[in-house]
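job 3f2a | input accepted
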Amino acid sequence: MSGRLLRLVCTAAVAAGSVLAPLPATAVPAPDPGGRTVAEQLTDLQRLYREAEKATETYDATADKLRKQRAEVDRLDRALARARLSLQDSRGAAGRLARQQYQGSTDISPYVRLLLARDPQQALDQGHVIGRLARERAETVGRLTGTEQRADALARSARKALDRQLSLAARQKKDRDEVRGRLKKVEELLASLTPEQLSALAELEKNGVETAQRKLLASGALDDDRPPSPEGDRAVRYAVRQLGKPYRWGAEGPTSYDCSGLTSQAWDRAGTPIPRTSQQQWAQLPRVPLDQLRPGDLVIYFPEATHVAMYLGHGVMIQAPRTGEKIKVSPIASYPILGAVRPDARGA
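job 3f2a | predicted structure (348 res):
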C-alpha cells in the first residue's frame, strides 16, 4: 500500500475510533452465577459471536439467491407476456387463413381448372401463386404451433420459478429467525456480566490478538512489498471510506455493513463483482498464499469461512466485525486465519 493511502487509512481509523475497540459495555451489572473464569467467559462469548456470524452468512446466501430468483421470475414473466402477444398475433393470422380458405373453397381440382381454362399459361401462373399461398399458410400454421409450444414452456418455467421464489422467501424468514436467536444469546450473556467483567473480557481479547499478531509477524509469513492492483486500490479506498459505520447483519451499505457486505460492495465498486458471502468468496475466488498478500486481497477466517476482511498492507486489515461494533482497522491476526483470496487474480 502506498504511503499516501496508508496515511489515509491510519487517519480515518483514528478519527473513527476503530482500532481494537473494546466490547460494548452496555450490560446490566450482575455477578457470574457459575463462577467461570474470564477466559471461559471470553470463550463462550466468542463462540456465540461465531455462531451468530455463521447464521448471518447463511441468511446472506439465501437473500442473494432470493434476489436472483426474483430477477429470474421477472425475466420469465416478461418473456411469457411477449409470447402471449405473439400467440395472439399468430391466432389472428390463422383465423384470417381459415376465412380465406372457406371463402375461396371449390370442388374443382387444379387439374380440371387447367383443362377448362381459356388461357392455360395464365392458369399455370395462378397455380404458382396458389402454391406460394399454400406454403405461406403452412408457415402460418407452423408459427402458431411453435408459438403455442413456447408459451406453454414459458408458463411452466414461470410457475416453477415462482415456486422456487416462494420457497426461498420462506427459507429467508427461517434464516432471519436463526440470526435473531443467536444474537439474543449474545445479548443475554453480555447482560449477565458486570462492567468489570466486560472490561476484563475486552482486555483479555486484546492481549490475545496482540500475541497472535506478534507471532504471525515474527514467522515472516507476510511480505509487504507488493503494491495493490488498480482494482485493489479502488476497493481499498472504498472500504476505508466506510470506517466508523456500524455493523449490521445482512447489510450491504451504504450506511451499514456486515463483513461480507463490506468486501463484496468494495470490489463491486472497484469494477470486479464477487460472490456475496464469505463462504462463497472462499470457495469461488482464486486463493493466494499469505506471503503474497497485497492490499485489496480478502482474508478469510475460521474453519467454516464465516468471517472475511480486506487486507490493507503492513499487517492490518479493515473489517466489519460484529454486532455492536463499527467498521475498523485491525491486526490481520485478530481471528484464526483460514486463508486468503484475490478477486482480480485472473486479470493480474
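job 3f2a | Helices lie at 3-16, 38-103, 110-116, 120-191, 195-218, 230-241, 259-269, 278-284.
job 3f2a | closed
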